[in-house]
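input
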Amino acid sequence: MTKSIKIMRIFIIQRFILCFFILTGISAFAQPGNDTPCAAEVIAVDGGIITGDNTGATADANEIVPPPGMPPEPCYTAWCDGDPDVQTSIWYTFVAPANGAVNITTCLEGTSLDTQIAVWETTDCADYGSYTYFGANDDMPDPCTLGNQYASTLAVDGLIPGNTYYLQVDSYDGTTGVIEIEITTGVPTSLVNFMHNSGDAMLATVDIRVNGELVADDLAFQTCTGYISIPADVDAYVTVNPSTSVDDSAPIFSMNTTLMSALNYVAALTGIASETGYNPAPPVDIAFYAGAELNAANPGDMAIMFQHGITDAPANIDVFDANGALMLNDNLAYNGFSAEGFVNMTAQNMTITTTDGTNDLNLTFCAPFNSVGQFQVAFVLAYSGFVDPANNSDGVAAGLYAVNHIDGTFMPLIPGPCPIPDNDDICNATTLVVNDTPTDFDNTFASIQPGESSPANLNNNDPEADCLTQWCDGVLNGSLWYSFVAPSSGSVIVTTCFDVTFDTQVAVCTVGNCADFNTVTYIGQNDDMENGCTGGDQYASNLVLNGLTPGTTYYVQVDGWEGATGLSSIQVLDNSSVAVINSTSLKVYPVPASEQIRIDGIRGTASVQITDMTGKAILQSNYQQGSSIDIKSLSPGIYHVVVSTPTGLQSLRMIKE
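output
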């Protein structure tokens, strides 16, 4: 064989091998056949384990995702917050069994990756807008011991027997590989939150059993179990027992009921078991509300429902939001829940007042709910305690509580009306003097005025860089208003970047008529200052505006990102007088120093803080170009001199002799 022929044969073999690997590679990474819902693969319930592979899977542009989960473990009831998007999903369908309950798991030996699953129902597989959500899971409460430890398990019930449901299987962080799945017939259950709202000292702590099984051990007054699974679609014998009980043979109270697997419940324990000491003394009871909600319907919303458990209050009460003169509940009956059930509304602070239909009952409370919208929560507001404790064994005084089903507590609302700041109203804007000292504020009880305007907002998924010139949460939650007169330079800096602050968003506007938000014209806004705030919260605001008309009044609107509240300060500075740091020539002298120091490289006025080597602040001073700082009180040693302006800071070393 000649050398040229041998080379040719090697070349042909190499080309064949290359083509083989290209072809097999394409085959191995081809898009799965069940990459879309309309091509979903059928899984038979109780039909054994099936094997799938999401290698090459994609996500449709508008593909649905489950709603966010609830803290403290959102990965158990949804997809983990760290990766809530669809990336490599594949789809399956199954037919609901006769009892409408299924258990779905990927915790099997062949599952190689971290899965996340969700169940949906739809009448049109091609229309994501028609999908109804039934449940989701990312990580099992206990790590999977068969395959990947972060495999998924989901129990769903309340399904309609014979109906077809869709199973969406995705992976955390877009990983791909083999996934084993099994769907078996489950046991119908309902989620029930037992809340203890009986102020009888005899019932201070109780056990609750269902069909003899202990479901609440030592449940104390003004606590709750959180949502726990209880057998549904069967007769349930519910008992309230002494905390020392070992069974349900001698209950304080008992009842029979049947829970529906398609619904969740809130169950309130109320009434008096003691024969004396309480007036009036309605009997012990457990009131079940069918149709409980665990989450609000939309981001930024809250869902609330009232429960009346005060034995010596009028049998029927009316509930109002005094801030907006809004009827929250009409004729709320003792031992009952809101007839309207859970009402979804924008999360907001409310002053809740209570009447008997005519007279004020002196039950007024402040509900600081402005910031709960970011958690999209649903909760019960429970009237609890006694109007006249002295006539009821000196029990707990009447109050209104937010029942927290996450941690099992009753959170007391603040007695009295909400202390809404005066400058919550644009017509009462607080005047800021340019170059004056910072003005402190607290927006905890700020609210939204009817029709209140807001600047351009970005959607939550916009890049952080856009937050420099716009607000980046898309929501107005509770704003405060300020005004200032533009200086002769027409250039200002509006800042909330201070040592004590939170994630703010600010905007500057002109206002034609403070009583008409249609006359508001925004000329600039900032959510996060460029390069971040180095003094306090890194997401504080710093808005630089030029071209203002000297002598003209401008308004500043301050809000919290996604309802953030807290303490902060605001300051308006003439940009022409703000210190400019020349980092190349900035220095402290003399070295060493004994009585005074000077700082070169600053034009204008800057804030100077001297700290020891641990970072503890020793001295604070405003430094003007050419001035000096007295350091005679300092002990000999090495210190840091931190020079800061609204646009940045720099640290220098100083030696005191």
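quick obs: The first strand starts at residue 41 and ends at 42.
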